[in-house]
Each structure stands twice: as structure tokens, then as C-alpha cells.
Design brief:
Layout (H helix, E strand, L loop, with lengths): L1 H14 L10 H10 E7 L2 E6 L1 H6 L6 H11 L8 H21 L22 E5 L2 E4 H13 L28 H12 L7 E4 L4 E4 L2 H4 L1 H8 L2 H5 L6 H9 L3 E4 L14
Parallel strand pairs: 6-7
Antiparallel strand pairs: 1-2, 3-4, 5-6
Helix pairs in contact: 2-4, 5-6
Length: 266
């Protein structure tokens, strides 16, 4: 009887869909490990850079890139076990879709290149297939992530292949580590005055990423404004006090859409 039970359990595990354990992003993880460089700078802006040229040259049949896209096309995300897994999944999908937007039109110097979209606005162009359905970057960012979860933290994880965007993380996001990963992303962003948070007490000015302007409606509705959201990631007590008292002019940093390409490193 025990032997029969063991055989039944092994059979159940073998036929159980992979979604019970989460999507396997290890091929994408190998891509990040191989082609993503951290601690770089382009035009004086700190950024993690991707070697798009090398990735494009290695993205043929049987590659980790093709394995990732093929697996996503066949995977049903609704079967993921919990909220954290689903959120991590869609953050990864957005980042993969942004990379794919670049590779599909390579070589380009920006995701807003007219080679990609003649209006320079590729956000609503379908770019990636997941579970048999085609998605645009806009659909992933808002339908699946921001509105789908009523959570602003995905803004700290998604990367639009641009140097002023929140950095592309070195490893895929996972449900088990999602809170820690996004917390770290937020803490890194507020320490980057070139693109995250810049406090000038002498001038009475605070400048923040234009990401908070692009999606001002959600930040106001879900967090009471960008500063309230950013306070979750500011560790310096003096900076926190200054931001909370509010006696300053709030501005937005310039947004540079230059591609986060390793070949452009300063």
C-alpha cells in the first residue's frame, strides 16, 4: 500500500503543471548574468547596462532568449499560486518585453526611436506573447500590474530600456523575494540624485524622477502623492524630516530616453 501511495504521489508531481511552482525564469536569469553590467554610467547618469549587440548575436534558435519567449507564449499566468508570484511574473515579463522591443528593431539608440514606432511612442504596440495572447508594454504596466494589483511598487521593478528609468535588476524577480527586491530598488533610486531624488535645501527645491509625473494619477490615488510613496525608501532621518515638512518647491528631473546600452558607457 505504501509503495502504491508513493507511486501515486510521484505521478501527481510529474503531471502537475509547472505553474504550481511558478514560471521558470532561469534562462532569463542567465541572460542577465551574462549580458547585464551593474554600476555603470551613461552621460553621467548611473545605470545598469545591457549588451544588446552581444545578446542580439546570440538570440537564435536554442538560445536562452528563444527559450524564454517560447515558454512565455505557452504559459498561463492565471495559474500562478499567489499574488507575489503573479506580480513578480509580470514585472519580469515587462522587462523582457522592453528588451524584445529593442532587439526586434536592432540597432536603435532609444526605445522611442522612430524605427520602432514612427510617433516615438511604442507603449501600445503589441510586442510579446504570453499564454497565447499578445501584450503591449502599456497593457503589462497598467492592466496587469498597477491597476491589476492596485500597487505602485511595480514602478520600482519595470525597466523601459532607458538610462533615466529605474535600473534593470541583476536577477529576475521572484514571488518569495519580491518585497525585498522592490525595497532595495526603491532605496537605490532615492540615492541617485541624477534620476531618482535630489534635495537642494539651499534653493528650497526637491526634484524627483519624472516617472512620478508620468503616472501622477495613480501615485496620488494610491499613495497620496509621489513624496509619500518615496518616504518608504528614504533612510536618512534628516532627509525624511525635510521631505515631510514640505516647505520646498517640487520639481521633476529631466528624463533621458537614451538606450541603457553597454556600448554607450562613459
Amino acid at each position: 500500500m505504501k509503495a502504491l501511495i508513493c507511486i501515486w504521489l510521484l505521478t501527481l508531481v510529474c503531471v502537475m503543471p509547472n505553474s504550481a511552482f511558478g514560471f521558470d525564469f532561469s534562462p532569463y536569469g542567465r541572460i542577465l548574468d551574462r549580458y547585464l553590467s551593474t554600476g555603470q554610467a551613461i552621460r553621467g547618469i548611473p545605470v545598469n547596462t545591457l549588451d544588446y549587440q552581444a545578446l542580439a548575436e546570440q538570440a537564435g534558435p536554442g538560445s536562452d532568449w528563444e527559450m524564454t519567449l517560447g515558454a512565455l507564449a505557452a504559459f498561463e499566468p492565471a495559474t500562478l499560486a499567489d499574488r507575489e508570484q503573479r506580480m513578480a511574473f509580470w514585472i519580469n515579463v515587462y522587462n523582457i518585453a522592453a528588451i524584445k522591443t529593442i532587439l526586434d528593431h536592432w540597432p536603435v539608440d532609444s526605445i522611442r526611436s522612430r524605427t520602432i514606432d514612427w510617433l516615438g511612442s511604442p507603449w501600445k504596440d503589441t510586442v510579446i506573447r504570453v499564454g497565447g495572447r499578445d501584450y503591449s508594454l502599456h497593457q503589462i504596466e497598467f492592466d496587469q500590474l498597477i491597476d491589476g494589483f492596485n500597487d505602485l511598487r511595480p514602478h520600482l521593478g519595470i525597466n523601459c530600456a532607458s538610462i533615466s528609468c529605474v535600473d534593470l535588476a541583476k536577477a529576475p524577480y521572484s514571488g518569495a523575494d519580491l518585497h525585498r527586491q522592490l525595497q532595495r530598488q526603491g532605496e537605490l533610486l532615492v540615492k541617485q540624485p541624477q534620476k531618482g531624488l535630489k534635495i537642494d535645501r539651499l534653493a528650497g527645491r526637491v526634484a524627483i524622477s519624472r516617472i512620478f509625473d508620468f503616472d501622477a494619477v495613480h501615485f496620488k490615488r494610491l499613495a497620496g502623492g509621489a513624496i509619500s510613496f518615496l518616504l518608504n525608501y528614504v533612510s536618512d532621518p534628516a532627509d525624511r524630516d525635510y521631505l515631510q515638512q514640505g516647505d520646498y518647491q517640487l520639481e521633476f528631473l529631466d528624463y533621458d530616453w537614451t538606450l541603457n546600452d553597454t556600448r554607450r558607457v562613459d
